[in-house]
Structure formats: structure tokens, C-alpha cells
């Protein structure tokens, strides 16, 4: 039986990496019962990218969503649009809707499939937004921002993936059930925005041990240089290619560590636009 709280070092492979399979299969990673204490109305500090065109970056950094459709963006496993949040930290309000979201399903997500526009060739993200957000009891200004994101960000994701037969929009609360293991998604792609706490972490290929990524479950084995781990900010728009993105390579990423306050988990509110 593997002790999930142990600190793993995988110097030999594959025989001495026996604990990793358990890590890959379960979500019981080593995590503190009481993590960092945050003031619920303190804007968190995150380490964003150092420069717009950093050598070896896995992200194409844009100044508008339309830039993501430029030919030079196609070679990158991730597309990024930095954005400073225009909304306050709604941690308290987000934690308060935890019960409503949990009632929707196992993973605490409101979810809807986007339909084709009637009589047109595009996708009706506005209808999807109305369907989804009518079920979310969150502050009105935050709902308006999320609706704009679903419509504009969602439409851009659809333009990036014109071959896709469907898109799924999810508004999700991510607490202790989030998955902090480094991975590439197993589908075509995902657009993601985080509205509080901390954004998605990602890694450039040069610091990833891809054998460990595929065969081992231990984060300490996968990342060769932790000082080079990157993280997008709260509010940023991010598109991550998955393993099945046509002709592309996926972005290696993870959810940030779960945060606690006075022993209670703090939830992240996350919008996802999935390309199956
Ligand atoms: Fe993922």
C-alpha cells in the first residue's frame, strides 16, 4: 500500500517508481489538511510570465482574441490572452454557491452543450450562456463578465476548431476534487478562465520528463526544474491544446494547489469551453 503523503523521488525507472501508478489513478495526492491561509478578499499573488515573447514559451501571448487565429499562433500548444480582472474578489460569494453547484453533478459543475445557430453555420454561445448562467446564483456583474466570456471566448475557440462537431461549456467550482497532477488533456482542447484564487499552471517542454508524464503519477518526477513552472493569472483567457488536437502537441499543465482558510477549502470558479 502506498503512502500518499510520502515524498517521492523517482531516480530509477520503472521498477522503483511503484507508487506512481496509484498517484495516476487516484486524486488522493499529498495535500495539506490545512493549507495556506488566505484572506478571502485579498487578491492572490501569482507568478505570471516574465516577458511577452519568452524563448521556448509554450504559450502564444496575444493582445486580442482575434490574434489567436493568426497563422503564427498555430504552432503553439497554448494560446494566452492576459487580462486584469475588472471584478472584485468574490471568494465568499463563490464558496456560498458550493451546495448549488454540487447538486448539479459529481464534479460541482453547471454544464451545457452548445447548439448550432438556427439556419446558420455558427454556434449559439449566447443561448448556452443564458442556459448556464440562469442556474448560477452569483453576483450580477460577475455573471455579465462570464456571459461575455462564453460568447466571445467560446466563439473564438469554435473558430480555432472549425472541424469540431460539438462544444461543451462548463462553469465549475474546483475545490478538493481538483486534479493537481501534471498532464496533457486527452481530448482536442479546452478554453479555460479562472475568476478567483489562482490560474492554471503550465510547463514548457524542456522542463518536462515525458516518460514520467506518461508512466508515473508523481509531480516531483515529471518536472525537471520547478523554478521554471509558469502560471496564468486570474482573469486570463487560456486555450490549451490536448493530445487529440489535429496536427498539434498538447500543453502540459495542472490545477494549482488547493487552498484553505481556517481549515475550510476555498473554491476556484472556473469557466471551461471544451472541444471533445
Ligand atoms: Fe487538464
TrEMBL record:
Phylogenetic classification of the source organism: Eukaryota, Sar, Alveolata, Dinophyceae, Suessiales
Name of the molecule in the record: DUF1826 domain-containing protein
A Pfam family of this chain: DUF1826
InterPro entries reported in the protein's UniProt record: DUF1826
Organism from which the protein derives: Durusdinium trenchii
Domain of life: Eukaryota
Amino acid at each position: 500500500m502506498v503512502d500518499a503523503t510520502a515524498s517521492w523521488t523517482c531516480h530509477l525507472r520503472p521498477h522503483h517508481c511503484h507508487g506512481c501508478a496509484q498517484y495516476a489513478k487516484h486524486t488522493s495526492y499529498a495535500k495539506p489538511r490545512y493549507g495556506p491561509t488566505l484572506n478571502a478578499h485579498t487578491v492572490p499573488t501569482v507568478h505570471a510570465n516574465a516577458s511577452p515573447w519568452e524563448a521556448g514559451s509554450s504559450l502564444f501571448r496575444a493582445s486580442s482574441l482575434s490574434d489567436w487565429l493568426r497563422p503564427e499562433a498555430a504552432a503553439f500548444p497554448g494560446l494566452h490572452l492576459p487580462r486584469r480582472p475588472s471584478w472584485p474578489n468574490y471568494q465568499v460569494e463563490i464558496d456560498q454557491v458550493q451546495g448549488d453547484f454540487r447538486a448539479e453533478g459529481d464534479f460541482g459543475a453547471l454544464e451545457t452543450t452548445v447548439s448550432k445557430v438556427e439556419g446558420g453555420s455558427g454556434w449559439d454561445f449566447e443561448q448556452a450562456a443564458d442556459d448556464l448562467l440562469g442556474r448560477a446564483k452569483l453576483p450580477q456583474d460577475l455573471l455579465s463578465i462570464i456571459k461575455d466570456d462564453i460568447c466571445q471566448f467560446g466563439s473564438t475557440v469554435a473558430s480555432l476548431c472549425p472541424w469540431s462537431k460539438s462544444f461543451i461549456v462548463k462553469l465549475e467550482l474546483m475545490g478538493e476534487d481538483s486534479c493537481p497532477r501534471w498532464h496533457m488533456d486527452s481530448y482536442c482542447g479546452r478554453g479555460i478562465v479562472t475568476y478567483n484564487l489562482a490560474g492554471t499552471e503550465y510547463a514548457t517542454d524542456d522542463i518536462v520528463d515525458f516518460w514520467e508524464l506518461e508512466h508515473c503519477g508523481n509531480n516531483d518526477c515529471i518536472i525537471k526544474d520547478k523554478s521554471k513552472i509558469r502560471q496564468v493569472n486570474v482573469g486570463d483567457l487560456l486555450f490549451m491544446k490536448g493530445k487529440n488536437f489535429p496536427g498539434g502537441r498538447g500543453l502540459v499543465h495542472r490545477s494549482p494547489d488547493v487552498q484553505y482558510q481556517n481549515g475550510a477549502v476555498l473554491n476556484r470558479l472556473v469557466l471551461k469551453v471544451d472541444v471533445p
